[in-house]
Amino acid sequence: MSQNPPNLRPDLARSFVPDTLRREGQPTIGMVSLGCPKALVDSERILTRLRAEGYAISPDYKGADAVIVNTCGFLDSAKAESLDAIGEALRENGKVLVTGCLGADPEYITGAHPKVMAVTGPHQYEAVLDAVHKAVPPAPDPFIDLLPATGVSLTPRHYSYLKISEGCNHACKFCIIPDMRGKLVSRPAHAVMREAEKLVEAGVKELLVISQDTSAYGLDLKHATTSGRDGREHRAHITDLARDLGSLGAWVRLHYVYPYPHVRNLIPLMAEGLVLPYLDIPFQHAHPDVLKRMARPAASAKTLDEISAWRRDCPEITLRSTFIVGYPGETEAEFQTLLDWLDEAQLDRVGCFQYENVAGARSNALPDHVPDEVKQDRWDRFMAKAQAISEAKLAAKVGQTIQVIVDEVDEDGATCRTKSDAPEIDGNLFIDEGFEGLSAGDLVTVEVEEAGEYDLWGRLKH
C-alpha cells in the first residue's frame, strides 16, 4: 500500500533509466512505472525483453516512438494517478500502451482515455510485447544491439528487487490484489537463486526480496526442491530461500512478511548475519474486532509475544509495518487499542494510511463508515506517536558505530542507508564531511553523530 514515489518513475528519474545510444532506424520505447516495487520488477522485465529485441529505451517522452504506462490500481487515489499519467503520456507523446494492475479493468481506462493503443493486465508480458510490436515494429540488429547480462534495471546498480512470487491467497476485505493478480504463484527456488546470483555477479550489493506474501513462498509448489544448473538443490520455502540468498554475500532484505508461526525460523538467520535483521510485516491493525472485519488473523496479543521473542533472539532486529486507520466500523475505543498496542510494540518503522473505498473491495459494503475528518484526526494522532517512537529509537543510536550502504553522492554529501532502512520507504543516514571519495554502492563504517525524527547523520570511521 505504498504511495507511488516520483523517483520510481523513469520519466521523472532519468538516472534510473539505462543510457542507450540509439542507432539509426532503431525503434525506441519509453516507460512510466507506477506503484509498488512488484510493478517496478514487471517494468524491468518488459524493458529487458524489448532491449533483447533491439528496442532502445528513451528517458523522455519526445525521444520515444511509443510509451508504456505500467499502472497501479490498489487504491482509488492510485487509480487517479495512473489515469493522470496516461493522460500526460498521451499529451506528450500520443502513442500510449497501458499495462499493470489497472489494466485488469480495461473499460475503466478506455472510458477515460479512448485513444490508448492497447490495454493489458498485470504481469502479461507476452501481451505487452505483442502490443508494442503492433504499435512500433521491431528492427533488431544482432551485430549492434547488446543486452546487459542482468537485463534492464530501473533501480541504481547497487540494489535490486527480487520478486519470488505473484498473487496472494488471502481474502482481506479491503484488498483487490487477488482479483487483479490472482492466487499465489511461486517461482521455483532454483530460478530465484539463479537470478540472484547473476545480480550479485553484476555488482548488486543489496537484494530486496518482494512478493505479495513472502511468508507463503513455495506453498503452492508444496515446497518442492529443484536443482540449479550447478547441480545444487534449492527448496521453495522462505526459510531455505533466505538461507541460500544469504550465502551470496549481499545484503538480503525481506519485505511483506506475514507473521505466520514459521517466521520465527528466520530470526536465527538474522542473528547470524545471513540476512538483514529487518522484517517488513503488514499488521494493519491491533484490535481483534477490526482485524476480524478486515478478514485478517485476529491475534494481536500473540503478535506482541512474537515480537518479544524476535527481539530476544535478535536484539538488532528492525520491525517495519503499515496500518489502516478509519476502517469501517472502527470506534474510538478500537483506535485507542491500536495506539496502546503501538506503545507496547515500539515498532521501528511505521507507515499509516487512511481507509478509502476501492471499487470491487468487499469492505465497501461494511456498515458505519468513518467520517473523513475523524480519519484525518486518527491518522494525525497515530503518526505523532509513531514519530515520537522513531525519534527516541534513533536518538539511542547516537555514538554507535554502524555499517551503511551509500546510495548517492553529490556536492553536498553522501546519502546512505543503514541495515534498518529500505530504499524509498525508510530513513537515511547523511555524511556531509569527508565524503568525496565515496561512490554509490560502497559499504562503509560510520559513527552516528546526530539523530532526527526519521534520519541520522554521521562521520566516516577509517
From TrEMBL:
Record-annotated TRAM domain positions: 395-462
Compartmental location: Cytoplasm
InterPro entries: Elp3/MiaA/NifB-like_rSAM, Methylthiotransferase, Methylthiotransferase_N, Methylthiotransferase_N_sf, NA-bd_OB-fold, Ribosomal_uS12_MeSTrfase_RimO, rSAM, rSAM_horseshoe
Residue ranges constituting the Radical SAM core domain according to the UniProt record: 154-392
Sites where the protein binds [4Fe-4S] cluster 1: 36, 72, 101
One GO cellular component term noted in the UniProt record for this chain: cytosol
GO molecular function ontology, one term from the record: 4 iron, 4 sulfur cluster binding
Span of domain MTTase N-terminal: 27-137
Reactions the enzyme catalyzes: L-aspartate(89)-[ribosomal protein uS12]-hydrogen + (sulfur carrier)-SH + AH2 + 2 S-adenosyl-L-methionine = 3-methylsulfanyl-L-aspartate(89)-[ribosomal protein uS12]-hydrogen + (sulfur carrier)-H + 5'-deoxyadenosine + L-methionine + A + S-adenosyl-L-homocysteine + 2 H(+)
A Pfam family recorded for this sequence: Radical_SAM
EC number: 2.8.4.4
GO annotation terms (biological process): tRNA modification
Keywords for this protein: 4Fe-4S, Cytoplasm, Iron, Iron-sulfur, Metal-binding, Ribonucleoprotein, Ribosomal protein, S-adenosyl-L-methionine, Transferase
Top-level taxon of the source organism: Bacteria
KW Repeat (keyword) present: no
Function: Catalyzes the methylthiolation of an aspartic acid residue of ribosomal protein uS12.
Family membership noted in the UniProt record: Belongs to the methylthiotransferase family. RimO subfamily.
Protein name: Ribosomal protein uS12 methylthiotransferase RimO
Organism: Fuscibacter oryzae
